[in-house]
Design a protein that fits this description.
Helix content: under 10%
Radius of gyration: 32 Å
Order of helices and strands: EEEEEEEEEEEEEEE
Shape: rod-shaped
Strand content: 35-45%
Distance between the termini: 101 Å
Number of strands: 15
Length: 180
């Protein structure tokens, strides 16, 4: 807004006769909508970045990925940055979690926001996707067997899938035979 003085009454114009007022636009903040989520292998985890309000400018939010899961093996993700077009209030990262049928402990994918363009960082700038542990089932190989006296009975347990963890199965003995 520009104010310009006209011809004054009972005064003369001084050196400064115009005044400019610049209206600064509001810069939105950008945050992840939640700090974490837990999902299973074989699904697509969606991480949402949310603006505090709509913007007349497009917003770009760079991000990095880390964590204990391996990119390309345990997951693939959409490329940085998150793009939020003008007038919109959110954008997403898609994390495709690989179903590898291998029992393993929890793994994580951690997305961390960098410095956004046309927005400021908000409260939640780190989001952790926890890939739920894959736990195998364990069963006896067979439900029953017969052996003669003096023979050795071999009883096997088997897992429903390969495991990256050692599995220990406690058991008890009972029945009509006497140990020893």
């Amino acid at each position: 807004v520009i104010l310009t003085m006209g011809t004054p009454i009972n005064a003369t114009l001084g050196a400064t006769t115009t005044h400019t007022v610049s209206i600064q636009g509001q810069t939105p903040t950008v945050s992840f909508t939640v700090a974490n989520q837990t999902v299973n292998e074989g699904v697509v985890a969606t991480i949402t970045a949310q603006l505090s309000g709509p913007s007349s400018l497009g917003v770009s939010v760079p991000f990095t990925l880390g964590g204990t899961a391996t990119n390309g093996t345990d997951y693939t993700a959409s490329a940085s940055p998150i793009a939020i077009p003008a007038g919109n209030t959110s954008g997403t990262i898609s994390v495709n979690l690989t179903a590898d049928a291998i029992a393993e402990p929890n793994e994580t994918v951690v997305a961390t926001m960098g410095t956004p363009i046309n927005a400021n960082l908000g409260a939640i700038t780190v989001h952790t996707v926890t890939i739920a542990a894959q736990v195998p089932n364990v069963s006896w190989s067979t439900a029953a067997q017969s052996t003669g006296e003096g023979a050795t009975a071999v009883i096997s347990a088997q897992l429903s899938q390969v495991s990256t963890l050692d599995v220990t199965v406690p058991y008890t003995l009972s029945g009509t035979a006497t140990s020893g």
